[in-house]
Amino acid sequence: MLKRTILSIIILLLPLLSMSTNHNKREMRAVWISTLLNLDWPSQSGLSNAEMKKEFIEMLNKFEKNNINTVIVQIRPSGDAIYPSRYTVWSKWISGEQGIAPKDKFDPVKFMIEECHKRCMEFHAWLNPFRVVFSYNNHPAKAFHISNKKKDLIITCGKHKYLDPGLPNVRKHLNNVICEVVNNYDIDAIHFDDYFYPQENKTDTFDDSNSFRRYGSKFEDIRDWRRDNINQFIKETSKNIHQIKPLVKFGISPFPVWRNKSQDEKIGVDLECSSSYDDLCADVLLWVKEGWIDYVMPQLYSNIGNKNLDYTTLVKWWNRYSYNTNIYTGQAIYKLDAKSKEEQWQSSDEIINQLKINNQCESVKGHAFFRARFLNNNPLQISEALNKSYHKYPSILPINKNIPKVTPRRLKLVFLENKDKKHIIRWNNDGANNQYYIIYRYKGFFPNYSAENIYKITNKLKYVIPKDDYKKSYKYCVSSVSKTHHESKPTKAYIIKS
């Protein structure tokens, strides 16, 4: 009789359970921060150091409220840098003039990394490797910029200028740029977007015929040679990053389509659109197969049911062909607009529904929002929608199988203090591998370390429970987490009784 009653209750609850949100304890929740044209940060060039710092801190504070755990900051927008470099010049988007550094030797990248790590957020250094001048008519480069100093390395296509990937010394120069960043900064990842070879059309062509004649003798088709150039570059970049710092990840954010079915009948996606393989000469799937990159973040900026770029079709394709590489989806919150011509983008439900599809895909381990200013401007109350659903609780980052495991030590002692009417949780850290800590809070006899019971993620050794958040008879315990996001066994639970 009891068994039948329990079964009946479960059957009655099933519809409610299917409607509930699946809260992932491990999930990347990232935001792209663009420095080009001062799109996100800093809000304008020429700000004082104090103003730049204030803006960035305010941005991170808003991200914290949305339970964001990763920022992807554009540190090399156009053959330049927002940090001191031996190999490239200061970006105009910082001081207002190319080649001019911030006052008082201020290093924006060092500052941003420190602020992110204070909040247990990862910092991914976003570089545009080959594009060196963005819109040369509107934003011409100075005489000392590489596009003018070494014109033999440069090819113009459309309104932009690019380093020629077919030249070995170009690839060597770019790896010097990347290695400098990895060596000098406590970054968590190197990140490229989709700028490899530019997409050509009837009027805008990329004339690398001289390079092809000089270096492409083994190839009949110039596009096969171009793909090989990018393959060499990606492979070498991966090797260099992991030799310098094995725990630093290498991620790529490509076009949403690798190849169409009409281009590759066997595994191409059944859509018709520009593809990274054929239009940008970027064979992302090869890089995934070979383990040269640690994550892929396809720019899935279309809506569910889109005729040419259906979101569901694309995310399921990437999930199928992940080859055990973490997939993080690029989400187009910049399209959310009550006046959008596309009805789907007139509601924040579109993003929430996309995240629901992600949760059905085993290899999809998180998402990133394009871009920071849009998330902070909160179009169509997307922040409230996220915080009621998939961002309701904090999350820790997924394990990356390509990165060596670092095992954290379990904390031995946790103290609960009631001092000056404040409840304080303290713990001792005797493990060098402990990067940050998770405080769990739950009620009941059995331990529960689910996402819903993550109370706080911190890198401090104590936490003061706010007076308005104090709850009697709840159990608290703490686990330690390493730089690779492996978690120790939590401590025994303590109860605040008074």
Question: Could you characterize what this model shows?
Answer:
This protein has 498 residues and is of the alpha/beta class. It has 14 helices and 20 strands. The protein has helices at 2-19, 49-65, 92-95, 108-118, 146-149, 168-184, 209-215, 222-244, 276-279, 284-290, 311-320, 349-358, 372-377, 382-388; strands at 28-33, 70-76, 80-81, 89-90, 122-127, 131-133, 154-157, 160-163, 189-192, 249-252, 295-296, 326-331, 364-369, 414-419, 422-427, 436-442, 454-458, 462-465, 475-481, 494-495. Strands 1-2-5-9-10-11-12-13 form an eight-stranded parallel β-barrel, surrounded by five helices. The chain has a four-stranded antiparallel beta sheet with strand order 17-16-19-20, with no helix packed on it. It starts with a helix and ends with a strand. Residues 5-19 have low confidence and may be disordered.
Approximate helicity band: 25-40%
CATH architectural type of the largest domain: Alpha-Beta Barrel
Total individual domains: 2
The rough form would be described as: globular
What name is given to the CATH topology of the largest domain?
Answer: TIM Barrel
Distance between the termini: 41 Å
Count of β-strands: 20
Determine the CATH superfamily of the largest domain: Glycosidases
- Identify the CATH class of the largest domain: Alpha Beta
Uncertain residue segments: 5-19
